[in-house]
Amino acid sequence: MLQTVIFIGRSGCGKGTQADLLKNRIARFDEEKRQILYVESGEHFRKFIRGENFSSKLSKKIYDVDERQPDFLACWMWTNILINELDENMHLVFDGAPRALDEAEILTSALKFYKRKSPAVIYINVSRKWSEERLLARGRKDDLNLSKIDKRLDWFDKDVIPAVEYFRQNPYYRFFEINGEQTIEQVHAEIVGEYDYSSKD
């Protein structure tokens, strides 16, 4: 069975780490050795704002004042990847998208277009305080200033939580809420226990 997995959660919750671990597990147990398309929008945005075209410059202005990028641009990031790179026999893992209700609805239309069956949403739930501590500790350029971190966490509460609830209530998706305030190994074990059980044919 082709796997379609969406990781969602506050900044600092460990989405990327857990996505990598699950990708490795999917690859290890796939007897057909199919490829995995990994869609990580954050890195694509960082590359995009370094560009010289008009859109990149406008996007960088938004980035420089710590505002959220518009939904149409976020959708363009991952739709461009799907259109150019997705093959019919690939597993699909999303990390960092969608970030708003409108984007979640557009993603649903894309997954149905590609006839993806039973996509899973893994919501790694951590408190705001946990997120702040992890972001400050990792020391990335975007994470050195607490006011910048708090702005991103405000976006999550305002914009991403409605998308989380949309996934939770939508019968098209298999929704899993995971306690992210554990060790990396414990979070992975919880994901494997919930996700593997649900994905049996």
Relevant terms:
201 residues; alpha/beta; Rossmann fold
What can you tell me about this protein's structure?
The chain has 201 residues and is of the alpha/beta class. The chain has eight helices and five strands, in the order βαβαααβαβααβα. A five-stranded parallel sheet has the order 2-3-1-4-5, with helices on both faces. Helix 4 packs parallel to helix 5 (101-113). The longest helix is centred in the C-terminal third of the chain and has 24 residues, at 146-169. The model has no long low-confidence stretch (mean pLDDT 91). Its main location: cytoplasm. It is an enzyme of class 2 (transferase).
- Measured distance between first and last alpha carbons: 8 Å
Cα-atom radius of gyration: 17 Å
Number of strands: 5
CATH H level: which superfamily? P-loop containing nucleotide triphosphate hydrolases
Can you give the helix content as a percent range?
55-70%
Fold-level CATH name: Rossmann fold
Low-confidence runs (pLDDT<50, min 5 residues)? Answer: none
Mean pLDDT rating: 91
Number of domains: 1
Class derived from helix and strand content: alpha/beta
**What about the largest sheet?**
5 strands, parallel
CATH level 1 class label: Alpha Beta
Strand arrangement across the biggest beta sheet: 2-3-1-4-5
How many separate helices? 8
